[in-house]
Amino acid sequence: MNSTLLHFLRTFPMLLVLPLRLLASDSSPQPAPPPPPANLEWWREARFGMFIHWGPVSLKGTEIGWSRGAEVPEAEYDRLYRYFNPTRFDARAWARTAKAAGMKYLVLTSKHHDGFCLWDSQYTNYDVMNTPFGRDVIKELSAACRKERVVFCTYHSICDWWHPDYPLGSPGGKSKKPSPNMDRYHAYLKNQLTELIRNYGPLGILWFDGEWESPWNPDRAVDLYRHCRQLQDSIIINNRVGKGREDMAGTTAGGAFAGDYDTPEQRIGKFQNDRPWESCITICQQWAWKPDDQLKSLRECLQTLVTCVGGDGNLLLNVGPMPDGRIEPRQVERLREMGRWLKRYGKSLYATRGGPFKPGAWGVSTHQGKTIYVHVLDWRNEETLKLPAIEKRIVKASLVTGGKVRCAQSAQGVELRVAASSRQDLDTIVKLQLDGSASEISPR
Ligand code: FHN
Looking at domain 3-348, which of 3.30.479.20, 3.30.1360.120, 3.20.20.80, 1.20.120.450 is its CATH number? Predict the structure, then answer.
């Protein structure tokens, strides 16, 4: 290479690199998504939230989204909004029900897979303002939640079996739209999320769903995540914004972009304390309201919550309001019963972390500061509960749920003995006060 050219390249080295960058540009990986929000603690400490699946489909009592083009003919399903008039909808009552249940946040379906929007959107007429009801449900509920100090959040479906630009349709994503335009749909998605965050925010969580279908891909996922975080940096976004979720287990496989937390569904997540998670589970069987649906018992609801927290996760418990706008009175009563129990024993769950004793057939443990709470959910006809040894000294053992507990600690383990008369059917809570921080004890 002659001396003149060498001198020139030394002076302008970028000229050497630039062509390489251009060549690589189409294959270079997407810019990395922003790091998770700085503060997830409010949510982790909240431990318990209300999930709400609602829309005109409640007029039919069938499953939201999934019954479109299945149990309910598509044209009939899409006309339901013309009859949607939930005159007994009372946002304050919903927020108060969540609060009375001990729920600290509330996630409402702003748009499910059926495409219907529960707010006044300038990007579609298929929204609640074009129903006989004509009121902005999200505006009223977000305001009521703020008044009741319940953090307002929304669920938003990425797939949209109604919208003509989204390539797949009902039933259940099994049909193809005639002339879709995924880029135009992606813009619609982002515009509506801008509306939700700007007009009704700040939102606690953006609960994405419907990410599993082929039109969605990791690049769109990172773009959507970045879009929402740019609008509100503190917003927490679940792993269903990305691809790679391991079905109902709710974890995200090998390295795929996974949002801020995992989302086991209709099951209690496994013990996991290195990444936040939240189980979403129905209080009945169906997500949307169904007449005479089977309602879970108080014992099942509370043991599910205790077991989620013992695994270091949250519980998002779902209700499906009726077509008149009320949450079913029997569901309200079940939630009130949960709230009454949590008023007495919630200190052993809220703001605690799971462990250090990992969940077992006997139950779970939680901890905070120098205290471990042992939640014995099933004594299995054993005289004592035998737990692994811990290096911190137990300075005091007591029975939060009343009565006496005998605690023996040795290098072999911790033994707890509670008389049958003091054992609780739902949850016998033993409080172990230590001579040091429980968080220094590795899970075992
Ligand atoms: O298809 C949805 C279903 O209707 C419901 O919204 C649940 C809640 O997490 N998510 C999807 C099923 O995984």
Answer: 3.20.20.80
